[in-house]
Amino acid sequence: MLGKQRQKANLRRELVGRLSALLVQHKRLAEGHLQIFLSRYCPLLYGHKRIPLKLLLGYCAGNLWAANCLPTLYYVAVPCLCLLKGISLFPKRSSPWVLLFAYVAFAHTAYCLGEFLWCGGTFKGWCNNQRMWMFKRTTSYFFAFLDNILELLGYSKAAFAITEKVADEDVLKRYEQELIEFAATSPMFDILATLAMINLFSSLGAIKKIILDADQYFDVLDRYGLQIFLCLLLVTVNFPVYQALFFRKDSGRMPSSVTFKSIIFALLACSITMY
After folding, report:
1. Scanning 143, 154, 179, 251, which has the fewest C-beta atoms within 10 Å of its C-beta?
2. CA 201, CA 219: separation in Å to the nearest integer?
3. How far is CA 26 from CA 18, 57, 149, 213, 230, in A?
């Protein structure tokens, strides 16, 4: 009995890890899938007339994980930066076209949430799952896509990155408290923190615009309503990142170097956009 409990404890300790290790593992998966898609074993070519079209499309959805970084990075960064510049990217709130955006967003969110709850998950678990979805697309998938492009151009070769598999007691304790484990200096965290700071600065800029243009309050909301909502939503999603950057005192917080670089890069991006 004690032996089984000890085995379960050891297995749990191996399963619980740092966010950096999880992102690296997803980078490997996405990079390998994209390599298959770009090779002669691409499902659309190699599986033509061999397997059904629906199955081909299913394989391609997995093979193109890395390419999903491009639209995600666009929606995370470009609307927020354009908001600082005063450029409207979405229909006005009074336009009938806004119903299309609202329907797509609501239908997708409701379906994902319903499916997650039906499979036994919780609302908080679904929120964390959506958060990790964005983290992986803006970091793991981006580096997987970039490495594949560089390899095709002959500038780099695939390398195997070793990740830590065993968690200590402090990591296990924070895992039980549902705290994300950062505690590493990584280019992925630089991107993650910089995007979070861009979202925060854009949201503060939008609030400033609303306060200063109080006499045109409804006009500002009508023109930039969807972009402001998107920025505030991204700030909510990145809340654990802000905690790790500024408020957490444990060893799982963001390194000070990442905090410093993210603020500098975000201020630089916002300044270039505004001027």
Report:
1. 154
2. 22
3. 13, 21, 17, 45, 26
* CA atoms within 13 A of residue 146's CA, in its CB half-sphere: 10
Mean pLDDT over each residue of the chain, to the nearest integer: 82
pTM of the entire predicted model: 0.84
What is the number of other CB atoms lying within 10 angstroms of the CB of residue 171?
20
What digits encode the pLDDT tens for the residues 196-205?
999 999 988 8
In three-state form (DSSP H/G/I as H, E/B as E, the rest C), the secondary structure along 47-78 is CCCCCCHHHHHHHHHHHCCHHHHHHHHHHHHH
Nearest to 44 by CA among 32, 65, 24, 58: 58
Cβ(270)–Cβ(81) under 8 Å? yes
- The answer to whether residues 13 and 167 touch, using CB atoms and an 8 Å cutoff, is yes
Per-residue pLDDT reduced to its tens digit, 8-20: 444 344 334 578 8
Annotate 92-113 with DSSP letters as a single string: -TTSTTHHHHHHHHHHHHHHHH
